[in-house]
Design brief:
This protein has about 280 residues and is of the alpha/beta class. It has 9 helices and 8 strands. Strands 1, 2, 3, 4, 5, 6, 7 and 8 form an 8-stranded mixed β-sheet that branches. Strand 1, helix 3 and strand 2 form a beta-alpha-beta unit. Helix 6 crosses helix 8 and helix 8 runs antiparallel to helix 9. The radius of gyration is 19 Å and the shape is globular.
Length: about 280
């Protein structure tokens, strides 16, 4: 069976899953991403002693941050369909001295094995744009959350990506064309508020934040290079056009005038408490 264009649909079948994991760790270390992530976790209101689940935990970057918030009395579980990611997330957590506080398991977010009302908080960070049926995954997150507990999701929205490039038409052609090919919903970020309200959560709140890069961070460089490579592979543009596009980006970086921004939407809701009869 041919692989889906989105490599995160089947990580373990990719040619080099460890390279994907390294990319997640690179993104996790990027200063703007650190700020985005930690602002979102503060917005979610996670408290010491809580039991927290992250769906789509990847290399464990978010779980490691959550572990610091819940403290020694809390517990963090990360679930991911990739055996490679789970194995490496365990190794990294041990390296940070978090082996007893964080647990990683192989699992499908759309069919969680946990009982109803198990967690104080459930989270999914930059996951839903990869999921064909986001409502099913969200329904499972809500199910395993305690009544009165918190469901928190954050996604980027590629419809808001802005790149200062001399060829605007070519930029839109590459970015929009590749996004449509890869993601279940490249504009997922702006849908999260509606989704959580429609699924019956209460006190739904939104935090809009921005990834901003003016120094051509390693993550931005890798992201744009992959966009160009995929645009050629899927015949969205020619190899010469892609090379010209990348040269325009490099010229901006060399002149110290590079700018790329991308909106992230964090949405938090409360699971209704059971009503007395």
């Amino acid at each position: 069976m041919a692989l889906h264009p989105d490599p995160y649909r089947a990580v373990d079948r990719q040619p080099d899953p460890l390279k994907m994991l390294e990319s997640l760790e690179d993104r996790g270390r990027t200063p703007t991403q650190v700020r985005l992530r930690r602002r979102f976790l503060a917005f979610a209101g996670i408290r010491p002693g809580w039991k927290v689940l992250e769906v789509g935990s990847g290399s464990g970057v978010v779980c490691r941050d959550i572990a610091a918030l819940v403290g020694d009395g809390g517990r963090v579980i990360g679930v991911d369909p990739s055996r490679v990611f789970v194995r490496e997330a365990r190794r990294l957590a041990r390296g940070y001295g978090l082996g007893s506080r964080v647990r990683f398991e192989v699992g499908n977010g759309a069919r969680l094995r946990f009982r109803d009302g198990t967690f104080d908080t459930t989270l999914a960070v930059t996951v839903l744009l990869h999921v064909p049926d986001a409502d099913q995954l969200l329904g499972e997150m809500i199910r395993v959350t305690l009544p009165g507990g918190i469901v928190a999701v954050q996604d980027q929205d590629f419809g808001t990506l802005a790149l200062d490039h001399p060829d605007r038409a070519l930029t839109r052609r590459i970015l929009d064309g590749v996004d449509r090919k890869i993601y279940a919903d490249p504009w997922s970020g702006r849908t999260l508020h509606r989704k959580l309200r429609t699924l019956g959560l209460e006190s739904v709140r939104v935090l809009t934040d921005v990834y901003q890069d003016t120094t051509f961070e390693p993550w931005s460089r890798t992201f744009l290079l992959r966009r160009a490579e995929n645009a050629v592979k899927w015949k969205i543009v020619s190899e010469r056009q892609a090379e010209r596009w990348l040269a325009g980006i490099e010229a901006r970086a060399y002149a110290k005038t590079f700018l790329m921004t991308l909106n992230f939407y964090g949405v938090v809701g409360v699971k209704p408490r059971e009503r007395r009869r």
